[in-house]
Automatic annotation (TrEMBL):
Enzyme class at the top of the EC tree: oxidoreductase
Keyword Flavoprotein attached: yes
InterPro entries recorded: CysJ-like_FAD-binding, FAD-bd_FR_type, Flavdoxin-like, Flavodoxin/NO_synth, Flavoprot_Pyr_Nucl_cyt_Rdtase, Flavoprotein-like_sf, FNR_nucleotide-bd, NADPH_Cyt_P450_Rdtase_alpha
Full protein name: Methionine synthase reductase
Annotated ranges, domain Flavodoxin-like: 9-152
GO biological process: cobalamin metabolic process; folic acid metabolic process; homocysteine metabolic process; methionine biosynthetic process
Annotated ranges, domain FAD-binding FR-type: 272-534
Transmembrane portions of the chain: none
EC number: 1.16.1.8
Organism phylogeny: Eukaryota, Metazoa, Chordata, Craniata, Vertebrata
Keyword S-adenosyl-L-methionine listed: yes
Compartment(s) of residence: Cytoplasm
Length: 697
């Protein structure tokens, strides 16, 4: 009995969108096969565990949200451990392993996990297993899967060490743990990038598929030598497969009648208040032949208590595409049931640990409401979902291919044909027509439909009672794995919604009167605590925003113009705006920027056009980072001598990194310092909240 108790470990997760929880559940499921018991809790449930007295190993899976913050569920926990009165040996008794989730597209990669990891170390806690940092940019599973595989040997060694410290014989626990299947690994942790690379010593035993292989080539043409979503080639097609454990079902769905009302959309958000506001203006900012279509929408918030500052963001509650919902109902054979109310309950006797009613599913609503407003039907299916779909597939060839796509051996196929191709559930159901999942399976595996965040492009001081924002209509072109093109869930919906409002002259904001349209959208606040104008108006600042990245800076300039009008005696600092787009005549979004220049609100306006040809002897700069380098001395003066601010907004991968590299080069050149020293200066500017980014991938 003593040995059985010692095989327990504490498993904590902190999730924002469900990924960390799903990974923790995978660890919990695998633990049993290794003779262990995972005591799993959300990190916010601090009444159910106590790290101050915890004697067993602790495993933490934590994601990152926003610009590097821990998820909402971890806020109280982080605040508690960051108490400066805690002694440096507060957690000296604690042995833990941490898996952080993040996206290297963002500056503060895995910062949620790094913050907790660093603080636990400061308080004396010890690693029993090296920290893993998984990157959603390239695929979480590239680190998550081998990290979990190596966890079991590390736990075994932690238990043995624990026994030795207690002065007891380790034979019993050793033999008990050895009796359970486990996997050994050699762990190599790079101190610079902290990416885990684990090499299998033997085949993973959690759920190895050993079967006589189906001759897939009978199902496909012998000429198919290239893999596809539905077809594999050797070695995958000839491999025994290591697939995830089958997730236990835990949801029960009961159809009721068609009488009643669906819940209000405001009930779908967990924090804050949702406001239903009319769209009073819609303007297309780009020409028809522009590569991307940018729209500006104006909302009337006068009758609400919604408030914002320039630089803030807000969220839009958006529905799934109505045609895709109808198509999904048709494939599921539930077209006649769309308007029926359903009751969703936790299945009695489910084997799922901590099974609970999904918070994003109303207690009572129609099936169509759930598929329209609650579930992200466009979500890229995770491997656990694919594993569950295997059991709903009757065709033997289709079944095998789904097994391959969720297997370790098919990892590259999963990345190529599902993840990178933006394949969703509908695409899978078309590609594998014998797959007939139940409604409860969809509710269990499809994540919550997330509200979409947009930067405010106006000032409440300049335009009282109005809120403007700008966005590109996102396009997903068809590809071999997904033969249909699609628009973004929210941007496609908004574009269709405001079609009647769009003005004939789409290249101007000069409108004579506003539409009496009654189209409304639901929004809620998402304040940005950092991306605001300097508190001191005399401080100079630089704004860099190509494309729709200019959006928050329109609000900055409107606000600054109004302040200048109302406070003629104030001292106002120098302002720079660097804007870039492809073509001057197609997608120069705000040509009225010159008005800010003429009235003195804007001191310097620098623009560049990356796709326009030039006959000048010296070619003009193509990108915003090129412009910044042209004005190196001025930029260095603003940042170093005048202690100014530097704002960057827009695409992370193709712009923000290039801008930060340019700033490093400028600092290095103007300070006559090496690049490493310049990088340290930039890090200090970030820390001081004087180099600020609002970026997206």
């Amino acid at each position: 009995m003593c040995c059985d108790l010692k095989r327990r470990f504490l498993l904590l997760y902190a999730t924002q969108k469900g990924q960390a929880k799903a990974i923790a559940e995978e660890i919990w499921q695998q633990a049993g096969a290794h003779g262990l018991e995972a005591d799993m809790h959300c990190i916010s449930e601090m009444d159910k565990y106590n790290l101050e007295t915890e004697k067993d190993p602790v495993v933490i899976v934590i994601s990152t949200t926003g610009t590097g913050d821990p998820p909402d569920a971890a806020r109280k926990f982080v605040k508690k451990i960051q108490d400066t009165t805690l002694p440096p040996d507060h957690f000296a008794h604690l042995q833990y392993g941490l898996l952080g989730l993040g996206d290297s597209e963002y500056t503060f990669f895995c910062n949620g996990g790094k913050t907790v990891d660093r603080r636990l170390q400061e308080l004396g806690a010890q690693h029993f297993y090296d920290t893993g940092l998984a990157d959603d940019c390239v695929g979480l599973e590239l680190v998550v899967d081998p990290w979990i595989d190596g966890l079991w040997l590390a736990l075994k060694e932690a238990f043995l060490l624990q026994k030795e410290k207690e002065g007891m014989s380790s034979d019993a626990v050793s033999s008990s743990l050895s009796a359970a299947p486990h996997v050994g690994h050699e762990l190599n942790l790079s101190s610079e990038v902290q990416n885990l690379k684990l090499e299998d010593e033997r085949v993973r035993s959690s759920d190895v598929l050993t079967q006589k292989l189906v001759d897939i080539h009978l199902m496909a043409s012998t000429r198919d030598t290239e893999p596809s979503l539905v077809h594999s080639v050797p070695p995958v097609s000839q491999s025994a497969l290591s697939i995830p454990a089958l997730p236990p079902e835990y949801i029960e769905v009961q159809f009721q009648d068609t009488h009643g009302k669906n819940p209000h959309l405001s009930s779908l958000i967990s924090e804050g208040t949702a406001f239903e506001v009319p769209v009073t203006k819609a303007v297309q900012l780009t020409r028809e032949d522009a590569i991307k279509t940018a729209l500006l929408l104006e909302l009337d918030i006068a009758d609400t208590v919604f408030d914002y500052q320039p630089g803030d963001a807000f969220c839009v509650l958006c529905p799934n595409n109505v045609n895709e919902v109808e198509e999904l109902l048709h494939i599921l054979g539930l077209s006649e049931k769309g308007e029926y109310f359903v009751c969703v309950k936790v299945k009695e006797g489910t084997k799922k640990k901590g099974a609970a009613h999904p918070q994003h599913i109303p207690e009572r609503s129609t099936l169509k409401f759930i598929l329209t407003w609650c579930l992200e039907i466009r979500a890229i299916p995770k491997k656990a979902f694919l594993r569950a779909l295997v059991e709903c597939t009757s065709d033997v060839g289709e079944k095998r291919r789904l097994q391959e796509l969720c297997s370790r051996q098919g990892a590259s196929d999963y990345t190529r044909f599902i993840r990178d191709s933006n394949v969703c559930l509908l695409d899978l159901l078309h590609a594998f027509p014998s797959c007939k999942p139940s409604l409860n399976l969809l509710i269990e595996h499809l994540p919550k439909l997330q509200a979409r965040s947009y930067s405010v492009s106006s000032s409440n001081l300049y335009q009282p009672g109005k809120l403007c924002f700008v966005f590109n209509i996102v396009e997903f072109p068809a590809c071999p794995a997904r033969p249909v093109s699609r628009k973004g869930v929210c941007t496609g919906w908004l574009a269709e919604l405001v079609l009647p409002l769009l003005h004939l002259n789409k290249n101007t904001l000069d409108t004579k009167g506003e539409s009496s349209s009654t189209e409304k959208i639901s929004i809620f606040a998402r304040p940005n605590n950092n991306f605001h104008l300097p508190a001191d108006p005399s401080v100079p600042f630089v704004m860099v925003g190509p494309g729709t990245g200019i959006s928050p800076f329109i609000g900055f300039l409107q606000h600054r113009q109004k302040l200048r009008e109302e406070h003629a005696d104030w001292e106002f600092g120098e302002t720079w705006l660097v804007f870039g787009c492809r073509h001057q005549d197609r997608d120069y979004l705000f040509k009225q920027l010159r008005c800010f220049l003429e009235n003195g609100t804007l001191t310097h306006l620098k623009v560049c056009f990356s796709r326009d040809s030039s006959t000048a002897e010296v070619a003009p700069p193509k990108y915003v980072q090129d412009v910044i380098r042209l004005y190196a001395k001025e930029i260095a003066r603003v940042l170093l001598k005048e202690r100014g601010y530097f704002y960057v907004c827009g695409d992370k991968k193709h712009m923000a990194d290039g801008v930060s590299d340019a700033v490093v080069d400028i600092l290095s050149m103007e300070m006559e310092a090496d690049k490493l020293e310049a990088m340290k200066i930039l890090a200090m500017l970030r820390e001081a909240k004087r180099y600020l980014q609002d970026v997206w991938s």
